[in-house]
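Students often ask why we bother predicting the structure of a whole assembly rather than each chain alone. The short answer is interfaces. A chain on its own may look different once its partners are present, and contacts between molecules only exist in the joint model. In this exercise we take two input lines together and write out one structure for the complete complex. Read the inputs first and try to guess which parts will touch.
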Amino acid sequence: MHESEVVDITDQNAVALACGGNPEAFSFLYEKNVTRIYNYIYYRIGSASDAEDITSRVFYRAFGHINTYVDKGVPFSAWLYRIAHNLIANWHRDNLRRKEVPLEDHLDLPHKADQPERMLEKNQELILLMKAIRRISADRQQLILLKYLEDLSNAEIAQIMGRSEGAIKSLYHRALIALREEMERIGYKSD
Amino acid sequence: MESKMNDMNNKGMFGLEEKLSSMLKPVMPDPVFMGKLKTRLAKTPAILIEKSKRRMGVIVVGAGLFAGALTVWIISKLKKR
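Now the answer. The structure tokens for the assembled complex follow.
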């Protein structure tokens, strides 16, 4: 064993090592990002099995193209989100003519600690909310999910989405308006 | 009047933001799925090799086409003589 080849993988060097073909570094990046990418996909499409499938494809694609990755100072996750975003668009295109799968058949139950009645009510609310979110444009959905699922700041979202912070603020405002309109359209009361 | 409407609008937005904040919670992917995917990724160094194979294929086809074109050109030159 060559001790000189053993390098500690950290947040700082993981991307560079992975780009250089270090599989442990890619595993490190996978561990750090898989949950957030899965969540993003899951909330965008509403199906756990499809979310798993697309998450796999995101990481396979990233792994296959890691040698072409150029570090531009934005988080590595931005690249993964972009791949996920494109694959979700393909998924929607492919599913356009298929019958829409009811979201309630696939939604996990994130409110497991609640009483059953309250849980059911919350899940119904979540289904309607997700229905409304999925009716707004893809970039608005992305912004809402990054903000509320990932709890990211406007500056961080701007880096991921490749826009200015001002553009994100304005997009966020428009996203809320569009979301409220969609909620009203499907008979959901936000207050 | 306009400021009152803006105020109402902001209140509505605030309610929506609160709702989003309370409803959108991260879900945990199936640990079995995560573990399997990690293992599969770790066992797939072939993806990079596959790419170089494709590149090699393009080079071989390109060289073949070039050689073919060159042969045709040489033959046509010889026929002219």
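Check your guess against this: Chain B has three helices and no strands.
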